[in-house]
Structures are given as C-alpha cells and as structure tokens.
Amino acid sequence: MTRHALLIAAAIVLIPGLGYAQPGALDWQRYNVAAGSAAADVPRAIFSEDGGPAQDGPGRRFVSADGRADLTVQAVPNPDGASPAAFLARRNPPSGIIYRRVTPRFFAVSSIRNGRIWYNRCNRGRAVMNCVLINYPAAEKRKWDAIVTRISRSLGG
Q: The CATH number of the domain where 37 resides is what?
C-alpha cells in the first residue's frame, strides 16, 4: 500500500460520525462542471447531498449528510484573464489567512472561521478560474488532511 493510500485509509477510519471502515467506502467520483472546465474528485460517501448550484459561476455544491462539511466545484468567470494573484486580490479574501500559496498557475488559501476550516484553490483556465472550496470542522483538521489534499490535487479544467 502506498503512503498516499495509507493516509487516506487513516483519514477514513478517524473521521467521527461518518462510519467508514474501508478505504473504498469513500466512493471517489469525478465531477465535471462542463467539458474543458472545472473538474475534481469528490468522495461521494462524505459529500452525499446535493447542495445546489455554485454561487460564483457554473458548478455544484455538495454537502455531507450531517451538514458539517461542504465542497463546491466551480468555474468562476475571469474574462480578463487575471493572474491567480490578481484574481485572489479582487476577491478581497478575509484577513487572517493561515495558509497562502500563489503561483502563476494557481492559488490556494485557507483559514478558520466559526470553528470551521475553509480551503479554496483555484487553477487558472481560459477566461475562468477552476476552483474548489471546502469547509469542514477545524477540530477534525488532521482527519481531513488527506481528503482535502486529494480533492485539491485532482482539480483540473
């Protein structure tokens, strides 16, 4: 078993209230907003409920059955082709960001608000930023790390 697989297996066993006993129980499925647009791997066993359309552009919001976590996959319009740094600055991110990584191809930011971690990654695309936004209980950070990592690294478009 690879180190990545072990991390995912450990995360599955440790997330309280979700009841997963096997790595395969997460039921990873690829969600595509549209051809050539935002796409990401979604653990459907966790994000099993439809949360409706994304707020900032084409896409979808997924919610855990207990409502404690949510995931949005979306293509946010970026008609002037702003760089990830300029796009992020225009969105006026809240102060107190704990994690920030900005490159010419993407940005990723994260912080804590109201006892929940929010994580946002956007990859630069043609006239859009392909994004994932994940919110989950801050008290369970370590238990979510491998899941958030897989979703983030799977973002394409």
A: 3.40.1000.10
